[in-house]
């Protein structure tokens, strides 16, 4: 039997783990000091990685942030799926869905500020703007899938395309989140009322199927 050992080949998994840990470190770093003030060295230091490890996974701080937004959106929508699984049993599924989601997505002031920072950064830098547009499209697609799942399980019919509704919800949430930074307690009520108006205008309850006896 040959004594020559074959090197283990697990770089894809190792790289995926490293990327996730870098995203964890980035989330903490951006929340602590903001997007603009955070450096790649800060992220690497917090995560215990070298710059080489960073650049093996992300081309820039902008790309890191875009990946972080996508990951957090996917996680949040996964939690929402779990939370809304039985919403069809509620007397008013639309209102119940809004209330449960608002409880789940209670405003994170630090994260809202970081998102606002990156949006301003993107407005001044075309490459970052293109990256932000791609990220918004990805997160919109995730939201479309979540809306379609919810409509199916809750017996709700959409009266507008799911993609249009997803973009409207995203824009509303982003705008109200900024307003909440300085708008006081009334801002939270504003988001609930605005979402209810939007969703009631974009949905209708499917008529129940008549029973054979009727």
TrEMBL record:
Keyword terms of this UniProt record: DNA-binding, Repressor, Transcription, Transcription regulation
Protein name (database record): TetR/AcrR family transcriptional regulator
Domain of life where this protein originates: Bacteria
Keyword Hydrolase tagged: no
Pfam families in the cross-refs: TetR_C_6, TetR_N
Domain annotation HTH tetR-type: ranges: 16-76
Feature: DNA-binding region: 39-58
GO molecular function terms noted in the UniProt entry: DNA-binding transcription factor activity; transcription cis-regulatory region binding
Keyword DNA-binding: yes
Organism per entry: Goekera deserti
